UniProtKB/TrEMBL annotation, chain A:
<dbReference type="InterPro" id="IPR008274">
    <property type="entry name" value="AldOxase/xan_DH_MoCoBD1"/>
</dbReference>
<dbReference type="GO" id="GO:0016491">
    <property type="term" value="F:oxidoreductase activity"/>
</dbReference>
<dbReference type="GO" id="GO:0005506">
    <property type="term" value="F:iron ion binding"/>
</dbReference>
<dbReference type="InterPro" id="IPR046867">
    <property type="entry name" value="AldOxase/xan_DH_MoCoBD2"/>
</dbReference>
<dbReference type="Pfam" id="PF01315">
    <property type="entry name" value="Ald_Xan_dh_C"/>
</dbReference>
<dbReference type="InterPro" id="IPR036856">
    <property type="entry name" value="Ald_Oxase/Xan_DH_a/b_sf"/>
</dbReference>
<protein>
    <submittedName>
        <fullName>Carbon-monoxide dehydrogenase large subunit</fullName>
    </submittedName>
</protein>
<keyword id="KW-0560">Oxidoreductase</keyword>
<dbReference type="InterPro" id="IPR037165">
    <property type="entry name" value="AldOxase/xan_DH_Mopterin-bd_sf"/>
</dbReference>
Automatic annotation (TrEMBL), chain B:
<keyword id="KW-0479">Metal-binding</keyword>
<protein>
    <submittedName>
        <fullName>Carbon-monoxide dehydrogenase small subunit/2-furoyl-CoA dehydrogenase 2Fe-2S iron sulfur subunit</fullName>
    </submittedName>
</protein>
<dbReference type="InterPro" id="IPR002888">
    <property type="entry name" value="2Fe-2S-bd"/>
</dbReference>
<dbReference type="InterPro" id="IPR012675">
    <property type="entry name" value="Beta-grasp_dom_sf"/>
</dbReference>
<keyword id="KW-0560">Oxidoreductase</keyword>
<dbReference type="Pfam" id="PF00111">
    <property type="entry name" value="Fer2"/>
</dbReference>
<dbReference type="GO" id="GO:0051537">
    <property type="term" value="F:2 iron, 2 sulfur cluster binding"/>
</dbReference>
<keyword id="KW-0411">Iron-sulfur</keyword>
<dbReference type="InterPro" id="IPR051452">
    <property type="entry name" value="Diverse_Oxidoreductases"/>
</dbReference>
């Protein structure tokens, strides 16, 4: 029977009360007395040399306080990169400076070279028009392979080339992989593009900087998934402000999907300018600015080769990927195509030999970084596409080929050849569940019904694995991370028994205020309403690393469990004193402390009160108060997995793809709030449908962003997505965190694109089309059908 | 450039005198002058619907409406709908169906749904999706929103 509270209950979200009444407090709702307004002046060229910037007229315009350019930032650090990848020769990646405002050159459309700060937004906008910038256009590099050619224009003149790094993984295996591929019975090869995307959370980025000269204190309100990370990066590397003088607040945040992880120049600017001008400074991003300044996602071009024996057993896998970094290195950009991608190339399969090569390339485009899934969708897409193609070439059913190569449930923990150890999983079970909920047996009848209406129906599956719960700090440190990746929680029990939990995780739609409260309530046996979750403010929460990589419940939730365990241990000591019993005899359940074998008991509230009014209290043994903090550093990643199935109808006359059914059978381990988990899967799948069918960020050959608004960048709408069938009843709990949870935030976006493309190619089976690159727009599908018909 | 115009806006049943730039959008005036911040600006080019308000009972984009154009009209924002039965029922159903995550697009969708149900008290799933396709939500995948609107319509018809 479903529970009505605590772990496993679909508790209604408490956040909704404020969001449904319009009382959410987002960063643009923050208005500080005396605030001024910043407008960034951005390059409309992809690449240019700044000859001069004349701000005289703009500074004289009504209401203008100051116009800032790079010269105001001499002595200020660049926006740092948080991850250094070592190339296949053991050399560190090439790492260019990313100035707050462009120095000497502009390197992508949207690269800011000046900022106007004025009394009002209109005044700042009007004055921005008066800036006279003399910028000489330079040739732009847009295509990654062109960027690596000898003599190509360099994005950064001080680097040796546009190659950020050439990474081989695992380099020692390369010879054996090459040989296995050379000698294999069959090798399936596929070249594909993982299309460039723009995350597009509905709330654009905003930053408000304030400075108190009398306390020498800075406050930054920002749309961030991780305020402590922003404080650390901006304080230590850009502006030189010590942490105790810098408070970063990320209030309600309207979606992130990765793009609000990163530290952006606009945050540093508003913090810096507030001190320089002795006025609060607010910047609100317009949507058109967001398209050219939010970090983009994906943008990989890959070749993948899968070697098999006669029975379809996988022998070796080799991939060769070009990954676009854009013009500068965004905060975690170098890690995405490497450690978040190469390590997942084993998928759910036993493939003894794997080699992954990744060339990361600078181009005159917006920086590219993590977007929902980050590296894992790129890995899954390659693998699940090549497996489907292999099945077709080998004449084996695609589900059967997957099953022949699955890691079996009795083989866990399983060491992959790409350096990670999966703790648990049961891939046959999720595949079984998928076939059941997607009604594979009924597909033939549905296909016939579609055909009667003149539509081509296809059924496609994909099975994914991801590594979440990032991450063991010592491991990621060895891999180049310049941060630890633990999470923190402080559980503050108040004198009357209510509880404030301060977490380093951040909620920007995930519902942590509800699900985290469920965890603590469950452990203490008290009502969820008695617990408040506080997040998003460096002054109120312990140092934590924030929310991304589906880590919040696995790492943040585990920190909360550890802190609550400490609370229980101390409360038991207090209770044993109150009951005059031995501590080892005290039991705690349902909010009551009892002594085994007696009728002695004290209630939770009595213990809390005693802790703060310690009249009758063992002061010689323990301190008053009841507040504990825990920093949890995970022992391993978590490995959610699952099977996804898509059914499409393709219109043979127009090439239009309709996603008519979508099923997901996920293994997230234990589930805290099923309703929230389902919502995460729905949202992820919708973004996957967006990637597979609709969304594409396009630059022309001169580096002009052609998809700079919602008129050109096709976001999924209500009529683009079907009703989803989701199931998470297959549960193999994580073995190394106290909740047995794996994380669910990214799965939908990881598993869905290959399922959709596989379904479309199944629908087009009679045409013999091997592959169509995403997005599967009507034009692309129609062209592929025409080419196939004409034998091209 | 600055040529402020004094207008009277009837917002949520109260007439307010404001001085606005002729080019000022209704969205900016509501958010910044009147501090009605339920509506949000998601795109400023009329595509996402996060800024929807009711203008004489119909959902419109406040980002594409000039404040001066709204002078003769009755403007309702989500704040002003708090006591109205359609909105109350919609909010209950949105919560039950977990039809929101980050909440940023939600006020605009609720305003749209009020208009939808007033115009069509018994909408089909297809009709709801068709209406809803004027709004962008990046979090939910739309399914629970569709379900919540259909359920609210049912309740309001007394069919539940």
């Amino acid at each position: 029977m479903p529970k009505d509270s605590g772990i496993g209950a679909s508790s209604k979200r408490r956040e909704d009360l404020r969001f449904l009444t319009g009382n959410g407090k987002y960063t643009d709702d923050v208005n500080v007395a005396g605030q001024s307004h910043a407008v960034f002046v951005r390059s409309d060229l992809a690449h240019g040399r700044i000859e001069s910037i004349d701000v005289t007229e703009a500074e004289a315009a009504p209401g203008v306080l100051k116009v800032f350019t790079a010269k105001d930032f001499e002595g200020v650090g660049g926006v740092p990169c948080g991850w250094c990848v070592t190339d296949k020769h053991g050399e560190p990646m090439q790492e260019p400076k990313h100035p707050v405002l462009a120095e000497g050159k502009v390197r992508h459309v949207g690269d800011p070279y000046a900022v106007v700060v004025a009394e009002t937004l209109d005044q700042a906008r009007n004055a921005a028009e008066l800036i006279d910038a003399d910028i000489t256009e330079l040739p732009a590099v847009v295509n990654m392979k062109d960027a690596l050619k000898d003599g190509a224009t360099k994005v950064h003149d001080d680097l040796t080339s546009n190659l950020c790094y050439d990474w081989g993984f695992v380099e020692e295996n390369k010879g054996a992989v090459d040989e296995a591929i050379r000698n294999a019975h069959h090798v399936t090869t596929l070249e594909l593009v993982n299309n460039r995307l723009i995350a597009n959370p509905m709330e654009p980025r905003v930053a408000v900087g304030e400075y108190d000269p009398w306390k020498d204190e800075h406050t930054l309100w920002t749309t961030s998934q991780n305020p402590h990370v922003i404080r650390l990066l901006m304080g230590a590397f850009v502006l030189g402000i010590p942490e105790h003088k810098l408070r970063v607040i990320a209030p309600d945040v309207g979606g992130g999907f990765g793009t609000k992880i990163f530290h952006y120049a606009e945050e540093a600017f508003c913090t810096f300018a507030a001190k320089a001008l002795k006025r609060p400074v607010k910047w609100t991003c317009t949507r058109s600015e967001a398209f050219m300044s939010d970090a983009h996602g994906r943008d990989h071009v890959s070749k993948i080769e899968l070697a098999m024996d006669e029975s379809g057993k996988f022998l070796a896998l080799r991939t060769d990927t070009y990954a676009n970094m854009g013009a500068y290195l965004s905060t975690f950009a170098p890690s995405v195509p490497t450690w978040l991608h190469g390590t997942l190339m084993a998928g759910n399969y036993i493939t003894p030999l794997i080699y992954v090569n990744v060339k990361a390339v600078f181009t005159n485009t917006v920086p590219v970084d993590a977007y929902r899934g980050a590296g894992r969708p790129e890995a899954t897409y390659q693998l699940e596409r090549v497996v489907d193609k292999a099945a077709r070439e080998m004449g084996i059913d695609p589900v059967e080929l997957r099953r022949r190569n699955f890691i079996n449930k009795d083989q866990f923990p399983y060491d992959t050849p790409v350096a990670v150890t999966y703790d648990t999983g049961d891939y046959h079970a999720t595949m079984d569940k998928l076939l059941e909920i997607s009604d594979r047996d009924g597909f033939a009848a549905r296909k016939a019904e579609s055909a009667a209406r003149g539509k081509l129906r296809g059924y496609g599956v994909a099975h994914y694995i991801e590594a979440c719960g990032i991450a063991p700090s010592n491991l990621v440190g060895q891999l180049g991370a310049r941060a630890g990746l633990y999470e923190s929680a402080t559980v503050r029990v108040n004198a009357t028994g209510s509880i404030s939990v301060m977490t380093g995780s951040h909620s920007h739609g995930q519902g942590h205020e509800t699900s985290f409260a469920q965890v603590v309530a469950d452990m203490l046996g008290i009502p969820e309403e008695q617990i408040d979750i506080i997040h998003g403010d460096t002054a109120r929460t312990p140092m934590g690393m924030g929310t991304y990589g589906s880590r919040s419940i696995a790492v943040g939730g585990s920190a909360m469990v550890r802190a609550t365990e400490k609370i229980i241990a101390k409360a038991k000591k207090i209770a044993s004193h109150l009951m005059e019993a031995s501590e080892s005899d005290v039991e705690f359940a349902n909010g009551q402390f009892t002594v085994a074998g007696t009728d002695k008991s004290v209630a939770w509230g009595d213990v809390c009160l005693a802790a703060y009014v310690p009249h009758n209290y063992p002061l010689e043994d323990i301190e008053p108060g009841l507040e504990e903090t825990s920093f949890y550093d995970p022992a391993n990643f978590t490995y959610p997995s699952g099977g996804y199935c898509c059914e499409v109808e393709v219109d043979p006359d127009t090439g239009k793809v309709d996603v008519v059914a979508f099923s997901a059978a996920d293994d997230f381990g234990n589930v805290i709030n099923p309703m929230i988990v389902e919502g995460q899967v729905h949202g992820g799948v919708a973004q996957g449908i967006g990637q597979a069918v609709l969304e594409n960020c396009v630059y022309d050959e001169n580096g002009q962003l052609l998809t700079g608004s919602y008129m050109d960048y096709a976001m999924p709408r209500a009529y683009d997505v079907p009703m989803f069938t989701v199931d998470h009843s297959c549960q193999t709990p994580c073995t190394h965190n106290p909740l047995g949870v794996k994380g669910c935030g990214e799965a939908g976006a990881i598993g869905s694109p290959p399922a959709i493309v596989n379904a479309v190619l199944d629908a087009l089976n009679d045409f013999g089309i091997d592959h169509i690159d995403m997005p599967l727009s009507p034009q692309r599908v129609w062209a592929a059908m025409q080419d196939a018909k004409s034998g091209a | 450039m600055s040529d402020l115009q004094a207008i009277r806006l009837n917002v949520n049943g109260v007439t307010r005198a404001v001085s606005v730039e002729p080019s000022a959008s209704l969205a900016d005036v509501l958010r910044q002058e009147l501090r009605l911040t339920a509506l949000h600006l998601g795109c400023e080019h009329g595509v996402c619907g996060a800024c929807n308000v009711l203008l004489n009972g119909r959902a419109v984009r406040a980002c594409l409406t000039l404040a001066v154009q709204a002078e003769e009209a009755e403007v309702k924002t989500l704040e002003g709908l708090s006591a109205e039965q359609i909105a109350v029922t919609l909010k209950e159903c949105f919560r039950k169906f977990r039809a929101l995550q980050c909440g940023f697009c939600t006020p605009g969708i609720l305003v749209l749904a009020v208009d939808l149900i007033a115009a069509n008290p018994d909408p089909s799933e297809e009709e709801v999706r068709d209406w809803l396709s004027g709004n962008l939500c990046r979090c939910t995948g739309y399914q629970p929103i569709v379900g919540a609107i259909i359920e609210a319509a049912k309740r309001l018809r007394g069919a539940v």
